[in-house]
Structure formats: structure tokens, C-alpha cells
Write a structure and sequence with these properties.
391 residues; 45% strand; five-stranded antiparallel beta sheet; 4 domains; alpha+beta; 23% helix; single chain; Ubiquitin-like (UB roll); elongated; VC0802-like; four-stranded antiparallel beta sheet
Length: 391
Amino acid sequence: MRIPGERGGSAEVFLPCESGGGESFLRRLAAAGVSVAAARKEKDGVRFRVAAADLPLLRAAAASENVHPRVVAFGGAVLFPRYLRRRLPVWVTLGLILVALLFVSSVSWRTEIVDDGGGLSAGEKREIAAAAREAGLKTPVLKSAVDGREIAHSLLRRCPDLSWAEVETGGVALKLHVAARTEAETGPGGDDVVAAKDGVIKQLLVLRGQGRAAVGQTVRKGDVLISGHVVYEEEGREPVFVDTAAKGVVTAAVWYEGVAYVSLAAVSGSPGGAVTGSVRAEKDGAEVILFEGPGNDFDDFVTGTRRLSLFGWTVEAVSYRRSAPRLSRRKEERALAAAEKKAGNLAEREIPENAVIVGRQRRVLRDVPGAVGVAVTLETEEDIAMTAGER
């Protein structure tokens, strides 16, 4: 006897009948070996569950009793494979469509020549396409099998008149971006990009030419970073030499240092001693000297000035008081703070506008008697690329 709900699935059956008319049918099912579960009376019939495998016995009993039960719901794991089997052609078709879409999207079916410089004719584009096929760019081809960097280098070796090339594999069409060499990019000996100052390379982006430095390398001012003398080598072929105006962006770490000293002894003036001065009155351009003291022959003095208006006259009194020097000692903390501020300002004056400060170091100096010093080192990241002609 099968139990509804066990492995194999179950079916929910509704038997329309008058009140009490379904009990004899349920007894007939029990006699036929059909296990009935969850039986409940409803207004117009009886609802119960049987094992899905017992449905043929249920139909035979219904025919002998002349009743008409109907299956209203299925449940169980066995029904899903049956559902698949009934709709197998649909699932196979959907699977084939999905595989076809994946295949189409992973393949480049044709090649397009994109002239980024705008100076190529239709005939030159055809020649570039033929050279690209010789370099290994043949369609249709799987996108994952395309080595864009190697194809671009091989194409530049075959077409010296091109300034640069790049392979884009984004869509169904494989795009080959190229640009023709201009007059500014050619020259009898090429034009190198050199280091404008000392530094450690953080990033090297070659737009035109051939890189001669590497990330992490320490370079000195004047070292060649990107060479305009490009050599293309390919196995089984003679090397191709091309002179071009090198171009690129070279970001490097550069350090700037400022040093400043501040004396621990401070000398300030203290007013005191002899006083001299004068008093003058002025009105409508006329000037009257009211008082004139001895001349000011003090080496150090403090000046005081007072003005007042009286009956239309402007009276000005100027005094000169001898200043006596006073020696005091600065606190070392204040002296260090003043020296650090001054050293930082000196270092910042040397930093160009396009540089970004990424680090700061402070070093205390005590090599000068009676004074303290501070050396401030600022680390920046900036573009140090400079053409040789700019030196």
C-alpha cells in the first residue's frame, strides 16, 4: 500500500456528490488497496489525497461506482521530471538558443578599421586590413584568442607610417584603432622624453615611442624615459627602425626639502632713556613749527606720532625715544615650531602646481650652537616627462 505524500508524489482528488454519497466510494477505494489521506467533506462533495501511482486504481473504482472524481492538484518530486518530459522539445530549443547566443557573443565576426587620426584614405585602410590579417587578425575568431597587444605591435612593424594601433574586442565586430603618423611625429633622429628631475617612477604610460624605464626605477634628471627611436623585432625578419616624436606620461615620486634655523636667544628693544622730537601745525598748505628738539642721532629708537585738529589746524607731534636692547631666551618648543613652519614654506615654494603632496617628514637639527633647526621633506607625485628639446 502506498502512502500519499511519500516519495513518488500525490494527487488531490475532488468527488462531487450529495451529502454522505462519497463514503461508499472511499470504502471501495480502501478495499482496492488505495490509501486515502486528508479526506474532508465539503458542501458539494468530498476532497481527499491519494498516491499518484494509485490513480489508475481510483479511475477503475470510479468507473464501477459510476462516479466522476477529478484530480484538482498534484504534488511530489516525481511530477517535475514528467513535466519536463512532456515539454522536452521546448527545453531543448531554449537550451540551443542560449548556447547559440553565448557563441555569437564570444566571437568577433568581422574587422573594422577605425581611423582615430582622420588622415587615412579608403585605399590605405584596405592596406592596413591586409597587414592586420598577416599579423594574425583574422575573423571570425574567438575574442579570448585575440592577443591585442601582440597584433598591434606586429601591425606597427609592418606599417611604419602608422603612429599607433590598438585592438578593441568589445562587440561582435573587432575594431582596429589606428592613427597615421603626422609631420610632428617624424624627424631625422626622433625626439626622446627625458626626466625633468630626479625621482622614483610610479607609473609609465607610453603614448608614442618605446619605453626605456620601468616602474620602481630611480631616475636622474636628463635620463631617457621614452625613446623616439623605436625598434620592431620579429622572429625571421629584419629589425625595423622607426624614428618618432616620443610622447607619454611619467608619474614619479619626487622629494623637496626645506631647512630653517631659529636662535634660542631673542633680542628685543625696550623703550627708555633720552627723548627728542618736534611739534608742527599745518593749515591750507601753511606749516608752522611749534617745537623742534635736538636731532635724532639714536642708533635704536622707538617712534611715536600723535595728531589732533584744533580750530582748523592739524597739529602733529613726533617723538623719538632711545631703545635699549633686551636679551631673552626662547623656549625650545616655540623655536622648533617656528623653524618647522619656515622650513615647510621653503620646501613648498619649490613644488610645481601640478604636483600632489603625498608625504611629509620632519627632522630636528642641532648642529648650530645657540639655535635649533628643522629639515622638512615633502614627498610629491608629479609628471616628470619632458621632451629632449625642452631642456
